[in-house]
Amino acid sequence: MVRMVRIVPLPESLAQTPFTVYEARALGVPPKRLRAQDLSDGGRLIYLPAGRHLEIVERARVLAAATPGAWASHETAAVLTRLGLPPWLGECPTIHLSKQHELPRVRRAGVTGHRVRCIPGELTEVDGIPVTAPPRTWLDLAAVLPLNYLIAMGDQLIRQPRPSLELRSEPYADKDGLRLLIRQHPNMKGVEKARLALDEMRAGADSFPETFLRLALLDARLPEPELQLRLDPEDPRSPPADMGYRRYRIAMQYDGAHHLTREQQTRDNRRDEAFRSAGWAYFKVNADDLAEGFDSVIARIKRARLRH
């Protein structure tokens, strides 16, 4: 007869989450408990809940906790701070951890290690995880992001946030601050690309696709559009379009996933009606237009411009 071994429950803070051996010791978990079948070995000093897929934030937290002096950076930092990444970088199969350049590089399964020069003010915390602040993350990624994505991420740094949705009232950075950041790291890979991106960044785009639309308009030799264009510029309650040309009475709105909610659709319908009732040429743009490089919508915008 096989005798069943009773597994003593873990402390609540360790149940169903990865943890370090230090956390287990601090809570009085005996070493024998760590060899039970409901846990698996996550590498040096780390234990994982057996058989469960771990989210990026969970992996980043435990790996940073098990690696003194390290912080989440690069693609991992962009995910944790919700800056956004191209689809081919957003999955984070490994966690990026950085250490100061005078320390050994992090070498651990599941980690891409970096040795960098980091100065005060370039780190923050997300859910207790040390992580590069968004401006430094942008500069770290300059070496791997295509220029248009680097511009789009930069636009997200300098745009005015919506406090009711983002729990912050100030941009992550301004262009002068980013210029200083670049000057402080003259030898980093990608720094020249960051300088080029900074010249093309504009405050006012609320998403990557809005930036891509603006850049496509410029590539098509159309004028620089006005961003967050209000129908009546003197009235702060007047409905805004994402961008447009006041001189030609042309407005454009990119409809992303958040526009599918009923509340947002009501606001959108009122805005659309206001622009059209005022006699504007009004273009609603979506992911299908983005996929074709905005060619069709730009051709229609050019025709509307010629009519004015």
Number of helices: 12
Give me the count of strands. 12
Q: Uncertain regions: pLDDT < 50 for 5+ in a row?
A: 1-5
Order of helices and strands: EHEEHEHEEEEHHHHHHEEEHEHH
How are strands sequenced across the largest beta sheet?
9-10-11-12
Q: Radius of gyration in whole Å, from Cα?
A: 24 Å
Fraction of residues in helix: 25-40%
Report the sheet-strand fraction: 15-25%
Using brief descriptors, characterize the structure shown:
single chain; 308 residues; alpha+beta; four-stranded mixed sheet; 12 helices; 12 strands
Could you describe the 3D structure shown?
By secondary structure, this protein is of the alpha+beta class. Helix content is 36%, strand content 17%. The strands form four sheets. The protein has a four-stranded mixed β-sheet, with helices on both faces. The protein has a three-stranded antiparallel β-sheet with strand order 1-3-2. Strands 4-5-6 form a three-stranded mixed β-sheet. Strand 2 and strand 3 form a beta hairpin. The N terminus is likely disordered.
